C-alpha cells in the first residue's frame, strides 16, 4: 500500500524556518516526480515546488522561489522542503505528492498519490 507521510509542520513566527519531510512507501521512488503543494483555508490547492524524477527542479515563481528549497534522498525514499524567511501568507496545509514519471510537476492533476498534509502556521 502506497503511503506518503508528511511531518515537520508547526507554529512559527514570521522570519523563522521549517523543514518539512515526506516519507514515501514507493517501491520505485526514484521514478517519481515528488511535489509539494499547499492549501490555505478558502483557497485552492496550489503548487509550491517539485523535483522531477529526472532531477530537474521547479518552484512556484511568485511565492516561494528564493526562500524554499526542495530536495530528495532516494536512499531514504524521502523528499524535503526547507522553508526560510517564512511569512504569514505561507500559512497553509502542506501536502506531499508523487507522480510516476511525472512531466508536468506544477499540475496537481498529474499526481497519483497524496499525503494527508502537515499544517504550517506563521504568526506575524
Q: What is the mean predicted local confidence, pLDDT? A: 94
Q: Identify low-pLDDT runs.
A: none
Structural class, judged by helices and strands? mainly beta
Distance between the termini: 40 Å
Number of helices: 0
What does this structure look like?
Strands 2, 4, 5, 6, 9, 10 and 11 form a seven-stranded mixed β-sheet that branches. A four-stranded antiparallel β-sheet has the order 1-3-8-7, with no helix packed on it. Helix content is about 0%, strand content about 50%. With about 120 residues, the chain is mostly beta strands. The chain has strands at about 5, 10-15, 20-25, 30-40, 45-50, 55-60, 70-75, 80-85, 90-100, 115, 120-124. About 35% of the residues are buried. A hairpin with a 4-residue loop joins β7 and β8. The chain contains no helices and eleven strands.
What structural keywords apply?
124 residues, mainly beta, 7-stranded mixed sheet, 4-stranded antiparallel sheet, 11 strands, globular
Describe how the helices and strands are arranged.
Blueprint: E1 4-7, E2 10-13, E3 18-24, E4 32-39, E5 46-51, E6 57-59, E7 68-73, E8 78-83, E9 92-100, E10 113-114, E11 118-123
Parallel strand pairs: 2-11
Antiparallel strand pairs: 1-3, 3-8, 4-5, 4-9, 5-6, 7-8, 9-10, 9-11
Short structural summary:
The chain contains no helices and 11 strands. The protein is an all-beta fold and about 120 residues long. Strands 2, 4, 5, 6, 9, 10 and 11 form a 7-stranded mixed sheet that branches. Strands 1-3-8-7 form a 4-stranded antiparallel sheet, with no helix packed on it.
Amino acid at each position: 500500500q502506497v503511503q506518503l507521510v508528511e511531518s515537520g509542520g508547526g507554529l512559527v513566527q514570521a522570519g523563522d524556518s521549517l523543514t518539512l519531510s515526506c516519507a514515501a512507501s514507493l517501491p520505485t521512488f526514484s521514478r517519481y516526480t515528488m511535489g509539494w503543494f499547499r492549501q490555505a483555508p478558502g483557497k485552492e490547492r496550489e503548487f509550491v515546488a517539485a523535483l522531477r524524477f529526472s532531477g530537474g527542479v521547479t518552484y512556484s515563481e511568485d511565492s516561494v522561489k528564493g526562500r524554499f528549497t526542495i530536495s530528495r534522498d532516494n536512499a531514504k525514499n524521502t523528499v524535503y522542503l526547507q522553508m526560510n524567511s517564512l511569512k504569514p501568507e505561507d500559512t497553509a496545509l502542506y501536502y506531499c505528492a508523487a507522480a510516476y514519471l511525472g512531466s508536468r510537476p506544477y499540475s496537481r492533476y498529474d499526481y497519483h498519490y497524496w499525503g494527508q498534509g502537515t499544517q504550517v502556521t506563521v504568526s506575524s
